[in-house]
């Protein structure tokens, strides 16, 4: 494992991201660096506790944060092991599959200039990511078709996803039947499987001229599929999750920190008790829009998750509102 070079270049403001993969053939890899918002993220793909221990102990205390992928793609439990080996650096737990879904959504939506309602999307795969992408696109009004090698599994997934879709959704998720009946049908082809070369040249004829094909599983597209698509000027992409990498920083974003530091909470002042940011108040507590620097009295809590109707205010309630506006607002 050659990580000495990275250790020499590392900065206290840098991050380390550690992922696993469902591909059984993958070995330890140092992945390309990402630079987001001026922060350098050094990325590792690991397959064993030995790899994980080496990375964590090498960089513990040398970087600002460890981003640890907690999705169980393999037997390794990275969340538990990270707590075992990290003593100094802050750990942020992430779900990289969600990052992949966000990236896919952004790339496809951007290609169609966000006009994706009614688009016909073929998804090869029915695993965690493929199913989430299917649901996301169907919710946005796309006609989604799923295909793969296990028809029984596909039908089960589709039934479940359609149950989740909003009641009045105009589009449903369907099973792709066969290659013969869908010629020149699909606006997009998206693949998410851990198998190489499953998208053969037979799929080219299914795609419209202005279609986009996205290789999400990496190396899902066969050489013949790629060459024929390029000859016909069809747009091909290999998934690059950097487009949604800000998703990694969401839990540490300044607006999120502001919410927890300034917006949500309970406060006592001059005999008044107030809540804000979604905290359910006891009966009679003042509800504010912001606990630290409020600009509005929302009302008086009724003690069961709601607000008292102003018509129900007694003299004490009215007095509380007046005092709150004086002490909290001014």
Characterization of the model:
- The protein is an alpha/beta fold.
- The chain folds into 3 domains: 4-94, no CATH class; 98-245, NAD(P)-binding Rossmann-like Domain (Rossmann fold, 3-Layer(aba) Sandwich), CATH 3.40.50; 263-329, no CATH class.
- The protein has 9 helices and 15 strands.
- A 6-stranded parallel β-sheet has the order 8-7-6-9-10-11, with helices on both faces. Strands 2-3-1-4-5 form a 5-stranded mixed β-sheet, with helices on one face. A 4-stranded mixed β-sheet has the order 12-13-14-15, with helices on one face.
- Helix 2 (49-59) crosses helix 3 and helix 4 crosses helix 5 (128-139).
- The longest helix has 16 residues, at 96-111.
- It starts with a helix and ends with a helix.
- The relative contact order is 0.09.
CATH uppermost class of the largest domain? Alpha Beta
Shape: globular
Distance from first to last alpha carbon:
61 Å
How many domains make up the 3D coordinates? 3
Largest sheet, in brief, is:
6 strands, parallel
CATH topology group of the largest domain:
Rossmann fold
Q: What quaternary form is this?
A: single chain
Strand content: 15-25%
**Gyration radius, rounded:** 26 Å
On the 0 to 100 scale, the average pLDDT is 92
Going by CATH, the architecture of the largest domain would be: 3-Layer(aba) Sandwich
How do the strands and helices of this protein lay out in sequence?
Layout: H1 4-9, E1 15-19, E2 29-36, E3 39-45, H2 49-59, E4 65-69, H3 78-85, E5 90-94, H4 96-111, E6 120-124, H5 128-139, E7 143-147, H6 151-164, E8 173-175, E9 186-191, E10 207-215, H7 223-231, E11 235-238, H8 254-263, E12 265-269, E13 272-276, E14 286-288, E15 297-300, H9 315-329
Parallel strand pairs: 1-3, 1-4, 4-5, 6-7, 6-9, 7-8, 9-10, 10-11, 13-14
Antiparallel strand pairs: 2-3, 12-13, 14-15
Helix pairs in contact: 2-3, 4-5
């Amino acid at each position: 494992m050659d990580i000495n070079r990275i250790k020499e270049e590392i900065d206290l403001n840098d991050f380390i991201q550690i992922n696993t993969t469902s591909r059984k053939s993958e070995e330890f890899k140092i992945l390309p660096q990402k630079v987001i918002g001026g922060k350098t993220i050094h990325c590792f793909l690991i397959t064993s506790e030995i790899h994980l221990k080496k990375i964590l102990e090498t960089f513990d205390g040398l970087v600002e944060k460890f981003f640890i992928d907690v999705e169980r793609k393999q037997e390794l439990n990275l969340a538990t092991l990270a707590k075992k080996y990290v003593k100094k650096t802050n750990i942020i737990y992430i779900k990289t599959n969600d990052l992949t879904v966000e990236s896919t959504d952004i790339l496809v939506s951007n290609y169609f200039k966000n006009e994706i309602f009614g688009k016909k999307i073929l998804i090869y795969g029915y695993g965690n990511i493929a199913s989430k992408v299917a649901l996301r696109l169907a919710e946005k009004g796309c006609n989604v078709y799923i295909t793969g090698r296990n028809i029984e599994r596909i039908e089960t997934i589709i039934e479940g996803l359609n149950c989740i879709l909003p009641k009045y959704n105009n589009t449903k998720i369907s099973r792709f039947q066969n290659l013969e009946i869908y010629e020149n049908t699909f606006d997009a082809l998206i693949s998410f499987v851990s198998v190489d070369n499953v998208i053969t040249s037979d799929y080219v004829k299914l795609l419209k001229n202005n279609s986009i094909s996205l290789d999400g599983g990496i190396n899902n597209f066969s050489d013949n599929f790629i060459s024929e698509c390029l000859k016909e000027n069809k747009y091909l992409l290999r998934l690059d999750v950097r487009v949604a990498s800000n998703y990694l920083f969401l839990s540490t974003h300044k607006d999120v920190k502001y919410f927890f530091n300034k917006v949500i909470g309970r406060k006592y002042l001059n005999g008044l008790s107030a809540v804000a940011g979604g905290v359910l108040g006891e009966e009679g507590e003042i509800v504010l829009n912001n606990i630290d620097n409020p600009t509005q009295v929302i009302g008086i809590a009724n003690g069961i998750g709601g607000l008292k109707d102003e018509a129900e205010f007694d003299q004490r309630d009215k007095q509380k509102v007046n005092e709150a506006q004086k002490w909290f607002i001014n």
